[in-house]
Amino acid sequence: MGKIEIPIGPQHPALKEPENFRVILEGEKIVGINLRLGYNHRGIEKACEERTYMQDIYLIERVCGICSHSHSTCFIQAVEEIARVEVPRRAIYIRTLVGELERIHSHLLWLGVAAHEIGFDTLFMYSWRDREKVMDILADISGNRVNYGINTYGGVKRDITKEQLQKILKTIDMLEERTKYYIQVTREELSIIKRLSNVGKLSKAEAIEFNAVGPVARASGVDIDTRRDDPYAAYDEVSFKVITDNHADVYGRTLVRIGELMESYSIIRQVIENMPEGPISVKVPRKIPEGEALSRYEAPRGEDVHYVKSNGSDKPERVKLRAPTLANIKVMLKMIENYNLADLPIIVAAIDPCFSCTDRMILIENQDTRSSEVMDWKSLRQYSINWYKKRGIKF
Amino acid sequence: MAREEEMGQELIKNFDFLDEKIRVPRERRIFIDVSVDKFEEILEFLKNKIYFNMLCTITGLDDGNTLGIIYHLANKEGIVINIKIRVPKDKPKIKTVIEYFPSAEFYERELVDLFGIEVEGLPEGTRYPLPDDWPDGQYPLRKDWKPDVLKKESE
What we know:
With about 400 residues, chain A is α+β, with helices and mostly antiparallel strands. Helices cover about 50% and strands about 15% of the residues of chain A.
């Protein structure tokens, strides 16, 4: 049979982010694949060098909308290491708490996306409904649904009240019940098992050879987790299991992520129970002494790696970011080979890709649209009602 | 930091020229400076003899007259060895490490696009991460590069 090359993307209805696949097919079977990335390259690393450390926190928090806290914590840890800052215990606990809440929202988001890719939209709606509960907590403690802005050099910006902690515990109880149900669904629901098993296989040897990270590696039986292996924040003071699985396929990746949700609930309970009292930040000088540091952070998608080099001024000399998706690209291409074209969306989704993070790094500013206006919820709602009314849609 | 010191000693035992070139700034972090001609030997030793088999990433650096390249290798215990090599800025050329770490491909393509470092042995393929119509000879992460170049190009 002749070979056909099919271009998918960078703009394509089935893709959530801009990327380009050139898939070579023999019938339905994928026999070769080429990937072009970089459509989201925003020059963030260069931009960091031209801004002060304080501005860089805001910039780095916007590398990704899902794991914003992961990137900012990873970066701040490197800078704090160079400046030899002793971060207060309470701040470390708050960082850990937000980090785990972020993992819950990211994994629930993933579960929804994966369910949608296999046409199981009921599960997609269930898990996204539950995810809203975590988003509410995050909005409650930080004021934002994404880009929480919790971190600052030497600690965190906002304290958490006892009432907020109680509220989190109650929500966690409810989410734990829901997650138990998802575990039951993924273990028993035949349509999920049959659709996800033996799809996107990645052997343990391949996962190690290609340096896979995060849930992708763990679902192939590779027992790695930065939270345990290279502990940061409060992870050396809480106990948790590193979830691994030997299915080595998309089904295994699902089980690992759902299992990690249960561990996150347990970590959050421990963090809240042992949350120390005291200050939430210490003052860090504007200029950071000369030095270099490498920081690692287990983001929901896998390991974030940040390298920071300082030159004694208030701007970094070099900031290098590596998001987990870039580490998993090679294994993803490996996983797709020899499967059907119809398997491509779920295999790609199963690494929980975030090409925005990966590309991270040209600034175009439109001088005409720099004016800004703040709208409150009421006026925003009124604006949308008027918008529809003008177009003849009744309310 | 006993474990890290031990590893440093073991490296010096095998490669005596590394004496004084190893820094351990904190637990689980080791920094090494090596010359380009000794780099592959050490990389091979780290990966196959003492099992640093995870390549976290490769960082490019503009150090003025030279370009620095740091390979960040991790092992299962969470220890990271950062090996730095330097190449002259007017003729930056290194050899690919994909035979040791297949995952290095994208990191090396970044060095090519962003620093203008020639990577010998890197297979043909699409560039990453800059666009196909990016002007030749513009390497954004070099210190003398300013974004104004792009404005002039588009005018």
